[in-house]
Q: What sequence folds into this?
């Protein structure tokens, strides 16, 4: 990806210069899972509190590697971005998110 | 988005986490979301119950709110003009609080058809129409809507005649769009309620055209 400086970021897909997404628009719709609503709500509240603007949300998503961007689902990308912003702002300590995830996984 | 099958007791604090026998409860995604919420609650950024209340608030935002705005614009020429000139204030007349969204209303006419996309992500008038549909967030829609909108519209069953200009609006974090569809023939004398019933979510994105 970095070999060609002209190549745009994964997120910058308007016009599809590489014809990666030239297929039909997928039309299946799903009702958001509870965890997806949870992430959406967290982000909205952080936005309202001035702790993560929509631009900061996008920046955190755009910093993902192309592989992660393609691999992660929509709200998984949001989760990554919110954690990134909260770490940058010192609200979540480095390593604290991974530790919390591990602790919760230990309970299941 | 419709409620997911259970009734909410509005006005009370409650946790939206599904019961542990729900397979999604222990998915990696659900654990990541819960971890994030708990850390923010521990940091004092989010109050316990605040996320649940926000989920309820978002569940309450449905495309029917946008449809009511469109129907009013069709029925009331003065409101129509206010909606074009000052969309946020006009929406508030119907009790819709756009919560800081900068909204621009683009009107379909006999010579112009408008369609909305967010090529970079998924910006959308969420406080008016609710959560955007999956296809709006799809890579194919984001990629193709700006270079071959007529082909994309055709997939949605919308055939725009050659003599009608197609305008594609690329939303940003700071500016969201709402398509004001043209009022279809055969709806003369209809009540606002009856008009609103034919205004679909997709019609307000530009990928559908209301018909009587």
A:
């Amino acid at each position: 990806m970095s070999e060609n400086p002209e190549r745009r970021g994964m997120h910058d897909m308007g016009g599809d210069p590489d014809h990666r997404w030239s297929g039909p628009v997928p039309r299946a719709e799903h009702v958001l899972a509870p965890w997806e609503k949870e992430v959406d709500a967290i982000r909205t509240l952080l936005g309202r509190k001035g702790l993560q603007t929509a631009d900061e949300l996008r920046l955190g998503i755009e910093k993902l590697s192309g592989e992660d961007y393609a691999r992660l689902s929509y709200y998984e990308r949001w989760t990554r971005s919110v954690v990134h912003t909260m770490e940058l702002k010192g609200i979540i300590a480095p390593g604290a998110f991974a530790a919390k995830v591990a602790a919760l996984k230990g309970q299941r | 988005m419709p409620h997911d099958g259970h009734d909410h007791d509005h006005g009370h604090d409650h946790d939206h986490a599904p019961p542990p026998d729900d397979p999604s409860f222990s998915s990696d995604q659900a654990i990541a979301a819960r971890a994030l919420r708990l850390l923010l609650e521990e940091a004092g950024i989010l109050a316990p119950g605040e996320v649940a209340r926000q989920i309820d608030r978002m569940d309450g935002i449905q495309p029917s709110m946008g449809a009511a705005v469109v129907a009013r614009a069709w029925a009331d020429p003065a409101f129509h003009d206010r909606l074009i000139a000052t969309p946020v204030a006009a929406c508030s007349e119907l009790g819709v609080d756009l919560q800081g969204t900068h909204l621009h209303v683009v009107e379909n006419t006999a010579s112009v058809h408008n369609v909305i996309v967010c090529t970079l992500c998924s910006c959308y008038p969420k406080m008016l129409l609710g959560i955007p549909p999956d296809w709006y967030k799809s890579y194919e829609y984001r990629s193709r809507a700006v270079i071959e909108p007529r082909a994309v519209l055709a997939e949605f069953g919308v055939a725009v005649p050659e003599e009608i200009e197609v305008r594609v609006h690329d939303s940003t974090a700071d500016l969201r769009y709402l398509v004001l569809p043209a009022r279809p023939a055969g709806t003369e004398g209809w009540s606002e309620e009856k008009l609103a019933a034919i205004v679909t979510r997709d019609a307000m994105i530009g990928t559908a055209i209301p018909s009587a």
User: Anything to note?
Assistant: Residues 27-58 of chain B form one domain. Chain B touches chain A through 60 residues (CB under 8 Å). Chain B has two domains: 27-58, 62-205. The two ends of chain B are 25 Å apart (CA to CA).
